[in-house]
């Protein structure tokens, strides 16, 4: 890792898009998207987010939720030790992952309601999001550590990242 704060802007060399879809998993840049297994009935549906007996899962030390208004960008930060699990609950998100080591690759994950899932983000992978559309959005976070400012590094989304286009849209037309 280059350190907790970067002196020069990062130059993104590649940027891919993926649209989160129901029942489709994917992995990229060390992160893993796992769709939730929904158990529907006439009342709605039920899904398990975390179980202690599933191998490879993080043990949450903190669980948080945020509500964000449309157009807001919360990016970028990363952790030395902490792993995160993002669980979008409502609204529409563009979740962005960015490597903190060269070569600097980025991935945009486009999420809308109906594609329920969880994104596991490993330590040292910068991440953030923008709320898309016209509705507020909610995100649930499970983290492997309690919040510690000493574990967190930050990159300004509009200054420290060269070649990352927030205005770019995926080919799917989202």
Task: Please tag this protein with its features.
six-stranded antiparallel beta sheet, six-stranded mixed beta sheet, mainly beta, Jelly Rolls, 174 residues
Structure characterization notes:
- 0% of the residues lie in helices and 48% in strands.
- It is mostly beta strands and 174 residues long.
- A 6-stranded mixed beta sheet has the order 2-11-10-13-8-15, with no helix packed on it. Strands 3-4-12-9-14-7 form a 6-stranded antiparallel beta sheet, with no helix packed on it.
- It has one domain (10-162): Jelly Rolls.
In short:
The chain is mainly beta and 174 residues long. Helix content is 0%, strand content 48%. The strands form four sheets. Strands 2-11-10-13-8-15 form a six-stranded mixed beta sheet, with no helix packed on it. The protein has a six-stranded antiparallel beta sheet with strand order 3-4-12-9-14-7, with no helix packed on it. Strands 1-16 form a two-stranded parallel sheet.
